[in-house]
Amino acid sequence: MSRAQDANRSFFPFGNPFRMISPKGSKVSHQLLLVLQAFEATFEERLTRLIPESKDEILSLSWMTLAMRLLCESHSDIKTLTTELELPVNDWDAKWIDVYFDISMKLLDICNAFSSELSRMSQGQLLLQCALHNLGSSSSEQYDRACSSFDGWKQHISSGNPRIEKCGSILDGLLGSLDLPKVKKSAKGKVLVQAMYGVKVLTVFVCSVFAAAFSGSTKNMLDLDVADVYSWAPTFKRLQNLVNEEIRVRFSCGRFAVLNELESVDSSLKELYPIIRGVVDPTEMKLLPEIVGQLGRSSGNLSQGLDLLAKEVDSFFQVVLTGRDALLSNLRSGATVIHSNVGVTEMQR
Fold first, then answer.
1. What is the SS3 assignment for 10?
2. Helix 187-215 crosses helix 61-85 at what angle (to 10 degrees)?
3. Could you tell me the superkingdom of the organism this chain comes from (predicted)?
């Protein structure tokens, strides 16, 4: 992998794979193998759905929305799998409780960072709407106001977001969670850990892509090395290679923004500026209504895409938060005492 790993970190959203379920060893039964195979088949299907037919689809808000939706579904499947396996969540060792809360908090933090950036970009829509309103008039004064709004929009979109800049350290923590724990005496634990590994890989991949897109830098990109022993590994590698390669190409070209919808708005602005500034042949003014209409559609697509993606990010936040609440509920019902600082804080909330 592209970053150093912390071998002591892993996260267990809905169950304890280290608890000894059976005292007679950990040989995985045929029935458990069928359960795992069904889980991984569904997981691979989701990976396949994320592979775009065209590179132009990569880093569109619709593709990112799909990625976040499939991530939510995969995490929900882990919860369902844990229920099917009847794995208990109480009586955890204190260190594993600490690990779970630490990693799940990182997921909540990165969701908050993404939501912050989506909200910031949505705020810029007010500037575009103001500019479009001013373009409804043919006066030079209104054109000047429109240009001022356009300049403000570009400056707003290009400005940095401190919360996104912190995603690198969060990703380092998530990357460390990919290490597979050793489960020697629990067949059910082995099944859960293997299933969770795929979901964790998808989580880190999607989060790294989002962080790269929002930060405008490849420093947050990760190239995950998945062993070929997993049935879904070839599909994931194909997805990762295609997406990461395209992102790097876009950054190397010095584009204003890597998100398709932002680029579409910027392209319309580049056509508009010479016309409303009067630096082109006056006869080209006849193109103004068409270009303004194109800008309006691009702005509308951007606004709608941001809203839909924000909803999916919030859904993922809720999935993670629900998992934490479920664990706390189980710990309370089992009268489990947590001695760590993190656990005590969570139990007192």
1. coil
2. 160
3. Eukaryota
